[in-house]
Design a protein that fits this description.
Number of strands: 0
Helix content: over 70%
Oligomer: single chain
Order of helices and strands: HHH
């Protein structure tokens, strides 16, 4: 079994901490964020999480509209470029953007 240095262990701990922070932003919306049990610290954290979820929902709606518009523009661009005989790698790159 390989030996790990102190810096390797600390780096792993730091990455775990970062991933937990990132994951906390994607809490399932069905979780009971606003339950009334727990300490005041827990309550303030839960209300902050609830605000973040609401803000993300608002941003999701606007970003979906932006994505739809962008996808439409890219599709039109692909059609125009393919009719003009543009390079296939350019068209494939635009198709990749749609994924």
């Amino acid at each position: 079994m390989p030996d790990f240095s102190e810096s390797d262990i600390n780096e792993a701990k730091r990455r775990v901490f970062e991933m937990r922070n990132k994951a906390s932003h994607f809490v399932d919306k069905n979780d009971n964020i606003s339950s009334n049990t727990g300490s005041p610290k827990t309550e303030s954290r839960k209300t902050e999480q609830k605000r973040q979820v609401e803000a993300e929902n608002k941003n999701d709606n606007s970003s979906e509209n932006d994505n739809d518009k962008s996808s439409f523009i890219i599709l039109i661009l692909i059609l125009l470029l393919s009719q003009e005989g543009a390079d296939n790698t350019l068209i494939l790159a635009l198709l990749y953007l749609l994924l």
